[in-house]
């Protein structure tokens, strides 16, 4: 008799969901999504793990998934609090024999599963390998021998076949008779009203249904044919695929995305742009496997290379960077977009991350944690992996990236349209003076008489010396 707990995490979909397929073979089933109270608390990097924009997106995803489960005679239970004790209570209350969940690289999740197993030694834990393009078994190497750079990984993986998406689940086993005692609430049958949508910027609507609609729209447009030429633009819905928020909550699988790329290549066009899109998905996979391999090192100051960057924590610089109040208008525009909309282009992310590390000499982990709070498409491996890469402590064999802000402004926003769009209209300079005076004026890298805070550029001599390669 299989009494199964399906712990739903980054797999909020019915299609191509091998974990749900496996759960469908149980005798009795309960589907649970855990919301940890820590997600809403300020952490040691002064940010919250879950900000408002992603929380709204997630609620829509949960509602959508619940609708699908209801149609199959099941429902999604949401439990709130301490994840380990909540899962443990569900296991005890229903005498769970099997736990099914999607295998993700997060260190918290993995630690939690081993503790849960210690508390419930009878429990069989099935971690379903479906978060990446390739399963661990299909890698031609052991994860511990993962190639040391992305280019090596790409060479090895390029021609390896990717598994086709699986068929949809049509029936699910019956529910347990009573609701779990830890239930905070059941999702209503009507979709949650989404409040506080950004007035500007891209709108992402959570859930499998909306995700598949967007996936279809992107691949029935001509945008995949020109992706490579436009992907570095700072603005524009059509300049990149905008698939990331749905991929990261598993509203569709990366294999489904790959299927669309292949179909586009077979029926419309196969060119450098369609290849480039695939190569970005491969980057995503690479960061996931790096995270599987290195575990907690993903979040350490010294990163994967084991040597500390020449940066530290300056509260005022960090605060001004978060609020888009640095001396760099392009950086400010990007940070305003991120804060107001929960999204930022890849080039924007690279520019602001480089600025925090190289111009402001701030510990990269504070920036990564701020991104974690703000981004709708936050993913642990991709976010912390990219930050490490820019800070020179990650998988980059060339050691760090420094983006020349003036050059980036001339290349990507010569007419200033993007900066005008995201300028902070409040123009609250009194607020700036207050911060400058009251926090730690001495740590701000502009000498007090050199400029007003809104001036365009800081001369190199006013910046703490940080040796960096690869100024772009
Ligand atoms: C400092 C920094 C932090 C980042 N944090 C995140 C994050 O938390 N979550 C996230 O999904 N992406 C992150 N990225 C990568 C990238 O910026 C986003 O994936 C991309 O902007 C999402 O938009 P898109 O779906 O239109 O991407 P597209 O350009 O259309 O790319 C398609 C897909 O490829 C993958 N991809 C694209 N660029 C990268 C990359 N540089 N590294 C790994 N995978 C990539 C994503 O899954 C993306 O959805 C970060 C990049 C930087 C520089």
UniProtKB/TrEMBL annotation:
* Segments passing through the bilayer: none
Superkingdom of the organism of origin: Bacteria
Cofactor: how bound: Binds 1 5,10-methenyltetrahydrofolate (MTHF) per subunit.
Which InterPro entries would you find in this protein's record?
Cry_DASH, Crypto/Photolyase_FAD-like_sf, Crypto/Photolyase_N_sf, Cryptochr/Photolyase_FAD-bd, Cryptochrome/DNA_photolyase_1, DNA_photolyase_N, Rossmann-like_a/b/a_fold
Keyword list (alphabetical) reads: Chromophore, FAD, Flavoprotein
Q: Which Pfam families match?
A: DNA_photolyase, FAD_binding_7
PROSITE patterns in the cross-refs: PHR_CRY_ALPHA_BETA (PS51645)
Cofactor(s), by name: (6R)-5,10-methylene-5,6,7,8-tetrahydrofolate; FAD
All copies of domain Photolyase/cryptochrome alpha/beta, residue ranges: 2-133
Q: Which family does the similarity line name? A: Belongs to the DNA photolyase class-1 family.
NCBIfam families, sorted: crypto_DASH (TIGR02765)
Cited function:
May have a photoreceptor function.
Protein name per UniProt: Cryptochrome DASH
Q: Which organism is it from?
A: Psychromonas arctica
Q: What does the record give as the organism's lineage?
A: Bacteria, Pseudomonadati, Pseudomonadota, Gammaproteobacteria, Alteromonadales
């Amino acid at each position: 008799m299989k009494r199964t707990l399906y712990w739903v995490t980054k797999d909020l979909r019915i299609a191509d969901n091998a974990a749900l397929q496996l759960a469908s073979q149980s005798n009795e089933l309960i589907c649970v999504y855990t919301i940890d109270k820590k997600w809403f608390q300020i952490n040691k990097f002064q940010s919250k793990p879950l900000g408002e924009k992603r929380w709204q997106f997630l609620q829509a995803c949960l509602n959508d998934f619940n609708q699908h489960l209801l149609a199959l005679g099941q429902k999604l239970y949401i439990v709130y609090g301490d994840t380990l004790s909540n899962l443990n209570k569900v296991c005890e209350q229903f005498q769970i024999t099997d736990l099914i969940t999607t295998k993700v690289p997060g260190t918290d999740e993995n630690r939690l599963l081993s503790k849960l197993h210690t508390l419930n030694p009878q429990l069989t834990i099935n971690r379903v390998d479906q978060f990446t393009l390739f399963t661990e078994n299909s890698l031609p190497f052991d994860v511990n021998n993962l190639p040391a750079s992305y280019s090596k990984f790409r060479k090895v993986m390029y021609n390896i076949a990717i598994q086709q998406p699986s068929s949809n689940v049509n029936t699910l086993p019956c529910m347990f008779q009573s609701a779990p005692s830890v239930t905070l609430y059941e999702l209503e049958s009507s979709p949650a009203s989404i409040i506080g949508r950004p007035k500007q910027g891209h709108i992402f609507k959570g859930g499998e249904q909306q995700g598949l609609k967007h996936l279809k729209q992107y691949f029935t447009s001509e945008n995949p044919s020109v992706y490579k030429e436009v992907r570095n633009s700072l603005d524009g819905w059509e300049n990149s695929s905008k698939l990331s928020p749905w991929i990261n909550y598993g509203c569709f699988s990366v294999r489904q995305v790959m299927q669309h790329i292949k179909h586009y290549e077979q029926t419309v066009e196969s060119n450098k742009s369609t290849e480039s899109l695939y190569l970005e998905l491969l980057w995503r996979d690479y960061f996931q496997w790096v995270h599987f391999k290195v575990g907690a090192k993903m979040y350490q100051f010294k990163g994967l290379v084991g040597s500390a960057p020449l940066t530290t924590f300056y509260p005022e610089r960090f605060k001004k960077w978060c609020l888009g109040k640095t001396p760099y208008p392009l950086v400010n525009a990007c940070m305003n977009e991120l804060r107001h909309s929960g999204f930022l282009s890849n080039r924007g992310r690279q520019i602001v991350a480089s600025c925090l590390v190289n111009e402001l000499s701030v510990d990269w982990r504070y920036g990564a944690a701020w991104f974690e709070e703000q981004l709708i498409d936050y993913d642990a491996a991709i976010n912390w992996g990219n930050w490490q890469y820019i800070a020179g402590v990650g998988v980059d064999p060339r050691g760090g990236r420094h983006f020349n802000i003036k050059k980036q402004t001339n290349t990507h926003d010569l007419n200033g349209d993007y900066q005008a769009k995201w300028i902070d209209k409040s123009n609250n300079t009194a607020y700036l003076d207050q911060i400058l005076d009251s926090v730690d004026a001495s740590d701000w890298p502009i000498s007090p008489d050199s400029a007003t805070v809104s001036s365009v550029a800081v001369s190199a001599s006013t910046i703490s010396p940080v040796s960096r390669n690869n100024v772009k």
